[in-house]
Design goal:
The chain has 1518 residues and is of the alpha/beta class. It contains 45 helices and 42 strands. A twelve-stranded mixed beta sheet has the order 17-39-38-37-18-33-36-35-34-40-41-42, with helices on both faces. Strands 19, 20, 23, 26, 27, 28, 29, 30, 31 and 32 form a ten-stranded mixed beta sheet that branches. A seven-stranded mixed beta sheet has the order 3-4-2-5-14-6-12. Helix 34 packs antiparallel against helix 38 and helix 35 packs antiparallel against helix 36. The protein is globular, with a radius of gyration of 39 Å.
Length: 1518
């Protein structure tokens, strides 16, 4: 329905209609797919498990039992048996047959075969008739059986893996379990293995001693013995508690499928966890376990888990056997990030006199599939088994995807079915009337045609059935198998393409096609949705800058003394655990650079400030790096003496902790809950007691730790790090913090504009009394089973208040090689690229410029939460930029006094914003939308359609601060509403939903693991390989498959066409014109090879041209090679050619005798000529459609004619004494006939002439781009498509500047003629020299210089920004960004600033004097705050490098009030360059008159923050 206008007028935007479901899909296809006899018969759906209570050495509650004494079914738990196979010995045949006959084609061919089992409809042997169908079914069944055997083998290996559970003695697990499934697979015999204890006992008995001298396991003592050293045995054989006999209490060897809920299990180092287990005790004194979750989420970084404090005494078999516990848990759920439960220790009394309760969270749980690493052993309690485990609940199969070509082929199959039915009906009707007429005329062949089974009334139905048999080849049975075969080979071509082979550290990664049926979809992609981190970037970090106390440290590129180059090490041993401590002596330790960190950080100015121990800046730096060194979850290992290596869960954390170590704040590891940190201020490491860790979540966007420093004072600290907006709103409210916040906010803006990932650090000194009360509340919240997450969040937020800001960090996530060029090529190909990321808006946009997603001429439209609703912003953006009506935000929405940034368009005499040039600006428009605004946009259908309309009018879209669910939603927004082909690419677990939602999902084997790869259709190693995957393999596959399918339909039409035309001469009796064996072999031998050759080897253009000219991808993107139009053409060709073959040869053979003796010819003489001619025409027609001729092509085209010639020669001499053939003697009468040797060449040439003339005209008179390039490559092979000025050399430049639309003609073809270079109008402003970037910002980070940025408008406030050399997002609510906007701080790089500083000739000339501004944080405020830092003397100092450079964020508002004064005061463009009044930016039409830019000295404010500290009161030493 149309969108309602808020003003009661007609809708402002054209509403995009949602894709309507066809009648066929709604009433036939989908009901057929939903109906599944297989599911109802063979699949048993289990109900979800309820919340549970696990009893250990406790009787089950009486209410669990029936009156007969049996435990109720709802209290039985799933077994730990995993069954992923579909078939068993008994269900394989019926289930597989039912699944295969869900295909309509198989049902059709089965019905045809059954018909021919009746003598009345029989053509040849019924067994021979059904043979093709049996072959197809057998091949498919064999493939299914092979896949299922592999599943059985995998299940068998997993279910029969060995684990060690507590057993023997009097211990018994009474928790009830369900029965295991019967897979009819033989059970593996458990390998015989004895522990060393048993071997010693046997050795002692063999020596005559009464018993082996084996000491019993040491019993667990009381609390006073808590600090004794635990056993470090890491194998069952070495464990003194190993149970060698079922009667001996100990750790018995058990297979996985026999593990029960409530079992105590002991997992040894490098063993997998068989179920979800809650940790009781570990080999580490602090009950910490280190695990690898690669099997769960693909991440290879080690993660730490810790035991439940109240269960640490359960570290032996005897202690476990004597424990009395009850474990209460919520129902199993899919979420990988939530687990609520509590364990009640009946042997421990709490402070309230009741049994003590301890919380169970994911941090105390080991999930099935994870592997224990660097920990000798773990003892735990099984809480979830089998289908209740999280890995099984999240192991849903990847959605079944069908290619677009296959979906388009279904209507074509139905067209052929309708054609078949029409032909059969015509034959039946005409035959009926003929027989009635002949019967009335008493024709002799109608004698006795009056019986119940043979009369004119019945024979019409018989003829209908016979016609279905005769013309059944209109539906090619071999088509589906041929398509699968071709796509399988195409997947191999993709895998073996050496251009997409990535070698790193000796490991080769190839492009892997995980879904073989989507290769042609790669050639039709219209939208690409990409993640940023790890997809466009390397997910390898460099700590670039930090702002501490208002001062920026940028680093000098030197290597700190504490860093040592990492050498190849042998495999990790248990001694390399995260708790292992380096020597605590005074000897110096080195830190090996983690693989996630590309370079260390060093800044001589920072070292100098640290050495000034009495200064305020030194104290702030101490607190800043102490937070970096303590607030994290990094593990510290010691691979070699004196060398520490950090193992982090994310590259960001590794970079932060490594930077702290580079500065001298070295994290030395953790001993129990004692954290050690070396600092430059003391010889011995400082020790802190880790009290609480408030974990980072996507909702909290921050992490905090509470520590107590172990010194005389014993102070409590809360250390926090998180997103700037989250930290800022929790800062203490005082003037010093306000100033530091404003200064840090400006620094964060600068960092983000350079594409850096930012984080804020803060701390708080806690009052002991407040902490004690908070600690009790936090414990109560963690053990609550009702709404635990909300309670924990509320309690955590209560203490994370009144923080003191220390500063901010800026980390660079390096771009992958070739990303800017890849995105430029994708845009040149006409593909719309969307980037969805969780980063902040400024960072996402800056990365957009560095990756060429945004170009210098791009005009940004920003939509986010602000002063106006999201609906108003979307509507106003559509109207203001693409509509036909003027836009005005008047006082009805917000008064001018309260909204100084009101947006208003008034006719200024300048060309209207929505005038004739709409959509023709260089670079066009790009939309940037935040996650909160995106959530509001999806709330209602109206805003959903507004977003759809606006986004489809923009060239690119960047979605920032989005969740995984929102990533999938934006894919569905485009895919479901527009019906276009979408590709999603990502590398992390948070990209899985987006990858599965798209038509084609691509996973990158990156640093974030393999979960995205495991859920994808194609896996590549680098983003840049996506271009070759699409432009070459996608283009070729779509072209090949389309041509193959169309030629498949065509060759069957020419076959049945000859049969149909003969109906005219046989009384429509469905008699075959030629021997049936020629019809039987038509799709097997005569015409199969050419279409297979097309699908495998044909290509319309070479790969070099496709990569050099991405514009050639247009043909596939527009779907021009497959559709109803081309299908109709090929069908018409088949009808025409069949008519030529039949009627010319029929006339030749019928009008006169072709024999030398003048006898009449036999029908098979004529029909054999027709068959050979039809085969020649069909094969040569396919050959005419082939563009690339190779040896295989020649073989495929001519093998069919060769076979039919040889077959005819042999088949014609088989005497009737062997068996009747009907063509015996053709070797004499056929091959000696002039009609044969003249007839088939004549009809072949005549039939192919139209196609030949059409292709000649098409390629030489009206060629398209591909035809032209093919001629260029043939006749001018020396031309390089990449660099030639009329080819890639020209278009490549245009691709980087966003001028692709001008490089195409009205039909979208490349303008290969008259392509003169044109200057980019917005790349460099007139009179301004190009400014180089500093080395750290070159090439890998910024493909387009930051000085070339387009204009932008923020729809949330209406503020706009003209195109300028700087980047600055200038609008946020509550006045923070307005202050930032007017601060006049430059965003120039350090290299550029120094160049201008020491070369006066490069300084721009100031514009007209500035208009006065009453902004609360304008340039006057900067002068007031910075004092004398603007003096020339201080500007010459080297230590004031590039903290905040000159320049301005050009902002102009649309009202006189805002321009004359107030918060929206207008400012000039950066560097003093005046803003042009005649359309200098896309927002010029919102101004009254031309206006003047503020012309302040660009050097002002250059050194703000350099050598000056805006800091809180003196903080205490950490």
């Amino acid at each position: 329905m149309p969108a309602a206008s808020t003003s009661g007028k007609a809708p402002l935007v054209h509403r995009v209609k949602h894709k309507q479901q066809s009648w066929f899909s709604k009433h036939i296809a989908e009901p057929w797919d939903r109906w599944s006899l297989v599911e109802s018969i063979f699949v048993r759906k289990e109900p979800p498990s309820p919340p549970r209570s696990i009893h250990i050495n406790q009787p089950l509650p009486s209410e669990w039992y029936h009156r007969k004494g049996h435990v109720k079914p709802e209290h039985h738990y799933y077994t730990n048996q995993i069954v992923t196979s579909k078939y068993t010995v008994f269900t394989y045949v019926p289930r597989n047959l039912l699944e295969q006959f869900r295909r309509v084609a198989n049902c059709f061919f089965l019905a045809i075969a059954i018909l021919q089992f009746f003598p009345k409809f029989s053509t040849i042997s019924p067994g021979l008739v059904i043979l093709p169908l049996l072959v197809v079914i057998a091949i498919t069944a064999a493939k299914d059986a092979y896949e299922d055997v592999k599943r059985h083998q995998a299940d068998h290996r997993v279910n029969n893996s060995i684990v060690h559970t507590l057993g023997g003695g009097e211990y018994k697990n009474i928790n009830p379990m369900k029965a295991k499934s019967k897979t009819f697979s033989p059970r593996m015999a458990m390998p015989l293995k004895k522990s060393k204890k048993a071997k010693k006992r046997e050795a002692g008995l063999a020596n005559g001693s009464a018993q082996a001298d084996v000491p019993p396991p040491e019993p667990r003592m009381g609390g006073a013995d808590l600090n004794r050293v635990r056993s470090q045995v890491s194998t069952w054989e070495d464990d003194p508690e190993a149970g060698d006999s079922p009667k001996e209490l100990g750790w018995q060897r058990t297979i996985w499928e026999d593990v029960k809920v409530g079992d105590f299990v002991k997992i040894y180092d490098n063993e997998q966890f068989p179920a979800d287990i809650v940790i009781c005790a570990t080999s580490e004194e602090e009950d910490v376990a280190y695990i690898e979750t690669k099997n769960l989420d693909g991440e290879t970084n080690l993660k730490s888990r810790h035991g439940i404090n109240g269960l640490s005494h359960l570290d032996s078999a005897e202690a476990c056997a004597q424990a009395h516990l009850r474990v209460d848990l919520d129902a199993p759920e899919v979420s990988m990030f939530r687990l609520n439960g509590a364990v009640v220790n009946m042997d421990e009394e709490g402070h309230d006199g009741q049994a003590e309760i301890h919380p169970i969270t994911l941090e105390t749980t080991l999930l099935r599939g994870c592997v224990l690493k660097n920990t000798a052993w773990v003892i735990g309690i099984v809480i979830f088994t089998g289908n209740d485990t999280k890995i099984v609940q999240n192991s849903g199969a990847t959605p079944s995807k069908r290619s677009k070509v296959e979906r388009q082929m279904n209507p074509q199959v139905w067209v052929n079915l309708i054609l078949l039915g029409t032909i059969a009906a015509v034959c039946a009707i005409v035959d009926h009337f003929n027989e009635v007429t002949w019967y009335q005329e008493q024709a002799y062949w109608e004698l006795y045609a009056d019986t119940s089974g043979d009369n004119p009334s019945v024979n019409g139905l018989v003829t209908f059935a016979n016609a279905l048999i005769t013309f059944q080849n209109v539906i090619p049975i071999s088509l589906y198998i041929s398509i699968e075969f071709v796509r399988t080979v195409q997947a191999g071509f993709i895998y073996w393409d050496h251009h997409m082979k990535y070698v790193r550290n000796g490991v080769t990664t190839r492009c892997l096609a995980r879904s073989w049926n989507l290769s042609d979809d790669l050639g039709q992609i219209q939208y690409i949705f990409s993640d940023k981190t790890g997809t466009l970037t390397q997910n390898a970090m460099i700590f670039r800058q930090c702002s501490v106390g208002g001062k920026i440290y940028t680093g000098d590129g030197e290597t700190p003394d504490t860093v040592v180059q990492k050498k190849p090490q042998p495999a990790s041993t248990p001694s390399d655990s995260g708790s292992s401590q380096p020597n605590d002596a005074n000897d110096e330790v080195k830190v090996a650079l983690p693989k996630e960190v590309l370079a260390p950080f060093h800044d001589s100015r920072l070292d100098a400030d640290l050495e000034d121990h009495e200064s305020e800046q030194s104290r702030i730096l101490h607190g800043f790096f102490a937070v970096l060194g303590l607030c994290h979850t990094v593990l510290a290992a010691e691979p070699e003496p004196g060398v520490i290596e950090y193992k982090a869960q994310s590259p960001d954390e590794a970079a932060l902790v490594q930077t702290a170590a580079d500065v001298g704040f070295i994290f030395r590891g953790r001993d129990k809950n004692i954290v050690k940190l070396s600092t430059p201020f003391s010889d011995e490491p400082d020790e802190y007691e880790l009290l609480h860790v408030l974990e980072f979540t996507s909702a909290r966007k921050r992490m905090s730790v509470i520590v107590r420093k172990l010194d005389e004072e014993g102070r409590l600290f809360l250390l926090s790090k998180g997103a700037d907006n989250v930290i800022f709103e929790r800062l203490v409210q005082d003037s010093a913090q306000k100033e530091l916040r404003e200064k840090t906010d400006q620094d964060l803006q600068q960092f983000a504009s350079e594409g850096l990932r930012t984080l804020c650090l803060a701390y708080r000194v806690l009052d002991p009394n407040e902490y004690e009360q908070w600690s009790r509340d936090y414990h109560d919240a963690t053990v609550s089973l009702n709404d635990r997450e909300a309670q924990v969040e509320e309690v955590s937020a209560r203490i994370e208040q009144d923080l003191v800001l220390l500063g901010a960090t800026a980390i660079e996530d390096k771009l992958q090689d070739g990303v800017p060029k890849a995105i430029s090529d994708l845009k040149r190909a006409g593909i719309k690229v969307w980037v969805a990321t969780g980063d902040k808006l400024e960072t996402a946009v800056a990365i957009g410029y560095t990756t060429h997603l945004l170009t210098p001429e791009t005009n940004l439209i920003i939509v986010r939460e602000g002063n106006h609703s999201v609906q108003d912003q979307l509507r106003d953006a559509l109207d203001g930029f693409f509509g036909d009506e003027p836009l005005s935000r008047t006082s009805s929405r917000a008064s001018r006094s309260s909204d100084p940034a009101a947006l208003e368009r008034i006719n200024t005499g300048v060309r209207s914003l929505v005038g004739r040039d709409n959509g023709h600006r260089p670079g066009g428009f790009s939309l940037v939308i935040e996650g909160h605004a995106l959530a509001h946009a999806f709330d209602t259908p109206e805003t959903n359609d507004l977003l759809l309309d606006l986004s489809t009018r923009c060239n690119t879209v960047i979605c920032c601060r989005v969740s995984p669910l929102q990533k999938a939603q934006i894919v569905h927004l485009i895919k479901d509403n527009l019906g276009v082909m979408c590709l999603a690419i990502g590398d992390g677990a948070n990209d899985v939903s987006m990858i599965q939602a798209a038509d084609v999902g691509v996973g990158i084997s990156g640093e974030e693991g393999l979960q995205a790869v495991n859920s994808s259709d194609y896996a590549i190693a680098q983003f840049r390989y996506l271009t070759r995957l699409l432009f070459v393999h996608g283009h070729w596959s779509y072209y090949r498959n389309s041509s193959m399918i169309l030629n498949f339909f065509y060759k069957n039409i020419i076959n049945i066409g000859v049969l149909f035309w003969f109906m005219i001469y046989c009384g429509w009796s469905t008699t075959y014109v030629f021997a049936y064996i020629y019809l039987l072999f038509w799709n097997v031998f005569w015409t199969l090879c050419p279409v297979l050759v097309i699908g495998l080897f044909d290509r319309d253009i070479d790969d070099v041209s496709l990569m050099a000219l991405p514009e050639l991808y247009r043909h596939g993107r527009e779907g021009s090679w497959f559709g109803l139009k081309r299908f109709s053409y090929y069908m018409a060709e088949g009808v025409f050619q069949s008519a030529i073959v039949f009627f010319f040869l029929n006339y030749t053979y019928v009008t006169t005798s072709t024999r030398g003796d003048a006898w009449d010819v036999y029908i098979y003489e004529m029909s054999t000529t027709m068959a050979i001619a039809a085969v020649m025409v069909a094969n040569l027609f396919s050959g005419l459609n082939i563009d690339a001729w190779t040896g295989w092509t020649w073989f495929g085209v001519f093998v069919g004619p060769f076979l039919i010639w040889v077959f005819t020669a042999v088949y014609s001499i088989i005497p009737p004494s062997s068996f009747y053939t009907g063509v015996y003697g053709n070797d004499v009468y056929l091959f000696r006939s002039y009609a044969f040797w003249f007839g088939w060449p004549f009809v072949t040439i005549l039939a192919l002439m139209p196609r030949y003339l059409f292709k000649t005209f098409r390629q030489n008179i009206i060629p398209d781009d591909i035809d032209t390039m093919r001629l260029v490559r043939k006749y001018q092979p020396d031309v390089d498509p990449y660099t030639h000025p009329l080819l890639g050399g020209k278009l490549g430049d245009k691709g980087l500047t966003g001028l692709v639309p001008e490089g195409e003609d009205k039909e979208g073809n490349i303008a290969l003629k008259d392509m003169e270079p044109k200057a980019s109008p917005g790349a460099v402003e007139e009179g301004r020299p190009e400014m180089p970037t500093r080395p750290s910002m070159s090439s890998a980070r910024f493909g387009v210089h930051s000085s070339a940025r387009g204009s932008q408008v923020d729809m949330s406030t209406g503020l706009r920004r003209e195109a300028s050399r700087g980047f600055g997002f200038n609008v946020e609510e509550h006045g923070v960004a307005v202050a930032r906007m007017q601060s006049r701080l430059s965003e120039m790089s350090e290299h550029s600033r120094r160049r201008r500083l020491f070369n006066p000739m490069l300084r721009p000339v100031a514009a007209s004097p500035a208009q006065p501004s009453s902004a609360p944080f304008g340039i006057s405020r900067i002068r007031e705050r910075a004092g004398s830092v603007f003096s020339p003397k201080k500007r010459e100092r080297r230590d004031t490098v590039a903290t905040h450079r000159s320049g301005a964020t050009a902002v102009t508002t649309g009202t006189d009030d805002a321009r004359d004064g107030g918060n929206g005061g207008g400012t000039g463009s950066g560097g003093g360059t005046p803003t042009k009044s005649s359309g200098g930016g896309i927002f010029g039409r919102f101004r009254h008159g031309s206006g003047h830019a503020e012309g302040e000295d660009p050097t002002l404010g250059r050194e703000l923050g350099a050598g000056q500290n805006i800091a809180p009161p003196e903080p205490p030493r950490f």
